[in-house]
Structure formats: C-alpha cells, structure tokens
C-alpha cells in the first residue's frame, strides 16, 4: 500500500478558498490556457528556497513564466550522455518546444545550497564530500566558482560572491547547450542573470560590459 | 563577454511595484526569515508548467513551501552513484537539513512532458528516443507507468491516467530514498499525491486505501 | 500631393532611443509575437484622454492587452445594419477572432466627453446639439445615463456619477452583442467595470451585488 | 444584475504596485493635469493590436498624446449625417476642442484587420461579407486601397502595401473634415503618416514629395 495521506484540513481549506476566488476570477483565462496550451514568454531558473517567490516579485500571470527550481539555481553543462538530466530536460523543453524569449537565472541571498558548498570547499563539511551526498555532488558544479572567490575572508561577503558565481556558472553552462547558443546568436533568446537579497528586497542584475552585478 | 542583457523595463517596473507594496508590507517577516533561516513545513514537487502556480493554489506565505519544479513533477529512484542528481539533492536537503513534515507531489492536466512520453511510448516521437534528447531520457522514468495505462484507447483519458502515474511513480521512487523511508516510518514525514485539473480548477488526492484519486 | 510632414526631431530622437533600448531588450519577444500572432488575455475599452495610460497602470506587456480607445469609453448597442461601427468591429474582433478572456471598461475622472454630455443635457451646449456635431451625436448614447443622475445638484458629483454611468452603459450595451452574451454565459468571457481618478490615482471597481463602485 | 466581476488579483497587485511607484513619483504632475485639464500636443490614431504600444515607442508622458485606437487605424470620410461616428467624434474633439498640433496615423505590420480585408477582397472570406460582420463593414473602407495593390502577387508584400494604404486612406479621409483641412491650411495642424514593423522595430514615415514610405 502506498503511504500517501490526505491533505491537512488547513491546506484543503485554502485550496477551496482559492477555487472560489482566484480561480473563479480567472476561470475564463485558465480554460483558454488549457485549450490552447501555454505560451510563456520567460523561463525562470531559481532556487527551491521557500523565501524566493519569483511569481510574486514579477507579478506573473498564470501562463507567463515557465519555472524550474532546484538547489542553488544551478544549470549543469551540456552532457548528452543518455542519462537523466532534469534541469537539462527543462531547458530543452523551454527553448526547443515552447521557444521562450528569455531565460532568467535568479540567485538569492542566504542560500543554503551555496552555504553548504562554501563549507564543503573550506573542508568543514566532510559529510557533503561522501559519494552518496546528493547535495554535495550537485554543489560540485560550483567548485570552480568557489575558487574564484576563496580569497574573500569575510564569510558573509564570500558567500554572497559565491551566490553570484552560481548564477554566472549557470549562464556559462547554458551557453554550452547548442540550442541555447543558437537561439541566443539568432537573437531569439535573451539571458538575464539576477540576484535577489531576500532580506531587504533588493534585486541586482549582471551587466555584461562590466561583468558585475548592480542594483536594478 | 557573457551574453547577459538587462531586464525589460516592464519587468523592472513590476519589480519596483512589488518592492513598494508586497515587500514593504512584509519587510519585518522577510527580515526575520533572512536572519533565522527558512523553516518550511512542506516540500512541493511540481511541474515547470506556467499554468500551475502552487503558491497561489495553497495561498503560500513566503517561508512556507520549499518548491522543486521539474518536467512532469518526477522523482527518480535513489541512485547514490556520485553523479549529479538535482531532484535527489533537493529532496535530501528538504528532508535531512530542513526536516520538512510533508512532501506534496502535484501533477496536473494538459502536461506537455507527459504528452511527450505518451507519444514516445506509442512510437510516434522518434526524436525523443535519440540519446541526446534530454526530455526523452527524463521521461524514460515514466515508461513503466505508461505500460500500466497503455490499454486505455482514448488519448485524453490515457494521458490523464499517465499524469497520475507520474505522481505515483514519484511517490514510489521517494520511498526508495532511505532517509525518506525512515522519516515516513518514524511518523516525521507525510507524503501527499495530488493532481490538479488546470482547466476547471479541480484538485484530486490519492487515497492509499483505494489506490485511486478522488476530488478534494 | 498628400499634406503629410516628417516627424519633428524630438519624436524621431525618442523613437531611436526606444529602438536602442526597450525594443532591443524585447526584440526576441517581439519577433515571436510577430511570427506567432498576438494572444491577448484582455480587451480594454478606455478613453482617448491623454491622462489615462492603461498599459502603465496595469504594467502590461506587449501582447497582453488589446486596446480600443474612444471618447468616453462608450460601447454602442448591437446594430448589425451594414453600416460602419468601429467600436463594434473592435469588440467583434477581440471576442470572436482573438477570443479574449476579459473585457475591461475603464472610465476616468475629469472626462471631457462626459462633461460635454452633461452640458448638452443641461441645455448649455447648443453647438453639441447640431446634427453635424460628431461629439454630440456620439454622446447621445449617454443621455439615458444622464437622466439617471440629473438630480445630483453639485456639478462635480453629477459628472463623476455620469462618468460611472458611461462605464455601465458600455457594460449594458456589450451584453446586447449576441457573441458577447454567449461568451459571458459560457464562462469564456468576464466583464470588468472600472473607474480611475486621474488626480489621486484611485481605482474603483463595480460590484455586481451592490451595483456600486468601490475602491480597489 | 449586471454581470461584472472583480479584477483578478494579479492585476489588482500590479495596480497597487503602479500606484506606489509610477503614480507616486508623478503625483504632482497628475494633480496639475487634473486641475488644469489636458493639453496634448499630438493626436494618435493607431490600431487596437496588443503588439503596438505607441506610448512606449515615443516615450509619451501622461498628458502628451490623445490616443484613438481602432481596428486598422482607419479614419472614415466626413459624414455629418447625425448618426454615431466614434472615430469622427475623437477627431473633432482633438482638433476643435483640444486643438492638437499634430495628428499621427500609425499603421503596423502583421495587422489582423488588414489581413481580414485582404482575404475578403480576394473572395476568400465570405463570412466577412455578411451584413452583420462589423469587421467586414469597417474594412470596406479599405476596398479602394486594396484595388491599388491587388496586382502584387506575394501575400506578405501585398498586405504590407495594404497596411500602408490604410494609413494613407486615413490621411485622405482626414482631409475631408472641414475643420481638419482648415487647420492644416492655416498651418495650425500637421499630419504624419507612419508604419511600424512590429517584428524588427523599424518605423517608416510617408514622404509627401515622393508619395512613398521610407525608414526614419
């Protein structure tokens, strides 16, 4: 027997509240989205962190943003080896099937995945170095990024720099996907690198010319 | 030079609107979440589809839901092989670091990933069978699920059944993770299997006793 | 020879500024909208008044709002008499070809067209009563609305009430179009009646139950 | 009971965002515009199409452009027959009450109204020929324009030529309004004929001497 359980009453109640209000107010639009399919303008790659709500920040409508969320908003490099690659599958679907016009990689402050990576690279987290640590092996992707910032002594500063390295690593890896590069080169796809301070609400964007992040 | 571009003005404007209203209204809470860290009650595994907004359906507060989104809300089986597993990393982090009390797998109607899987299994989508098809290799996980529903002749019915198989596959694979099974057995973690009809707003939950989905 | 003239340099300069910035930042999206066609969610019927910018108020993206603007945001009744009806053509195109999910009628304060109607109905504007007054004949549509508010003595109050009557007249006339009524009855189309105070930025919405406008 | 419904929450949220930022930043100017009335320099006649944002293209301020939008940016000829003429009312108000200095007719590529006219004139759209087709009867205005371009065999080229004919038809019809002609002759009013390619952002203006459009 599968060990599933009914939803707690408080969530059931919220769902019914949503259905009677938000859903009812948008029913005509949802029906049309269901019938005609989605046509999102933007793919967002952001973190699973419960404190980052990209739909809220950008006032997104249903149907507007195709959203992949993983630990530390990381994109792995292109590896067509026949194995499972969930992030790569999401990118492939967004770019080649949905043909989104923008990909937004959204990093954020106080990122637990980045903090774990930092501790691991400092040699302070042996458990993360075990072969069976999924978080450790996932965050290995950010080791080169850590090397770029390791000389920063202050923990908070180094981690913020590493959070931004995570975003840039994803941008760089995105460009290793042939279909991403082709769409960018053809002017059909634009990439945005962003970092959100969850404490003070600031949003910073990467400037290609200066290669730095600055406040939007 | 990295090929990033500034955000379009309309999104910048919406962000500033959010910061002046939603963010300002919640600043004290966000500051505390930043200082004390997140403590989400629920992990949600849902699809990237732009028409599924789990935070909206459940009226989620910032800090409440830890959300992983991938194509077709699939969880792969436990494979501690030292390779990168983004979904497994998210589950490990949620269960062992954040110690969430619930995992909600949320499938939905009109799922493009499930439709792709159906076509592939029917032999109608050779491109998805290529080794370098990330979507195809990702959806291979659902081949056993397809076999369970393949006798349903009506396309729409079979796909809805397959969408629910995707949810159950994820539940079954979740239970192959030792730390998930241990937490479930200890009563520290509860699993929910859900399916949302994006057209009429219906939410169905899996009932362990009958092994069927029914309307909530 | 047609009496057209080149654009003044200041507008040419602004256009080139837009092309180098806003257009460039959105070029991928505009190309896609051009190739795939528009799929707006909302039709907006608002006034020509230079002080009402509906795209700004609602942070609308290119491709999101189909906008008809005329004097006093008026919809005439359904009259399939084979003559030219510009507003009716816009509504027909939006509802039957584009199949928008919402129609928003947006009235506003200090409306010159409504003020003209008020003066005409008070007998203070004989020029507007002439057969060849296009504004007068257009505003005749609002005469029944004026009768409903004529007992309000204060000019400013009566005009505000008349501005809201203009919105409700449009809603009532919209429902005389068979394809509008059918779409509303089928749940495929939703109507919104709104009034914007251009001085203090307030937005009021019509409440079907109380039949009154209240602040949003 | 009137069938109006509340605005969806996402639009309400965007409105509040606008009010707290754009509106707040311009409140003094809006208050003055409210108190003193509008004094727009330009009347714009453009299409309802959701992909054409004239305020964005020309960086228009609140109070600067008086904007009429209809299907295919068409101006009918002067017909003071005592019937309702929405476009004529807007022109009359702009020229005789507001005394704008410029009228800009802005056509655009991929125009659905022009495409409908083209199909109708080719005999491929019988539904548009029915007496009760508002779009058909509205586009009848462009039949003479279609005759001028009918020998162009390539569909895309013929439609672009027809889009420009729509602009010129409007210019020619504008000149049949006595108050427009008088203002033009007196040097108080200037007419501009423009066409915007929504895909590549190009803007073309009509040159009176060569009677052709060329890139601005």
Short description:
4 copies of one chain form a homotetramer. With 216 residues, the first copy, chain A, is of the alpha/beta class.
List the SSEs and their pairings:
The structure is a homotetramer.
Chain A: H1 9-36, E1 42-47, H2 54-57, E2 65-70, H3 86-97, E3 102-108, H4 112-122, H5 126-129, H6 134-139, H7 143-149, H8 155-174, H9 178-185, E4 190-196, E5 203-207, E6 212-215
Parallel strand pairs in A: 1-2, 1-3, 3-4
Antiparallel strand pairs in A: 4-5, 5-6
Helix pairs in contact in A: 7-8
Keywords (chains A, B, C, D): Lyase, Metal-binding, Zinc
Function (chains A, B, C, D): Reversible hydration of carbon dioxide.
Catalytic activity (chains A, B, C, D): hydrogencarbonate + H(+) = CO2 + H2O
Write a structural description.
The structure is a homotetramer of 216-residue chains. By secondary structure, chain A is α/β, with parallel strands linked by helices. Chain A folds into two domains: 1-37, no CATH class; 38-215, Carbonic anhydrase (Beta-carbonic Anhydrase, Chain A), CATH 3.40.1050.10. In chain A, 46% of the residues lie in helices and 16% in strands. Chain A is built from nine helices and six strands, in the order αβαβαβααααααβββ. The first copy, chain A, has helices spanning 9-36, 54-57, 86-97, 112-122, 126-129, 134-139, 143-149, 155-174, 178-185; strands at residues 42-47, 65-70, 102-108, 190-196, 203-207, 212-215. The first copy, chain A, has a six-stranded mixed β-sheet with strand order 2-1-3-4-5-6, covered by helices on one side. In chain A, helix 7 crosses helix 8 (155-174). The model of chain A has no long low-confidence stretch (mean pLDDT 95). At the B-C interface, helix 1 of B face helix 1 of C.
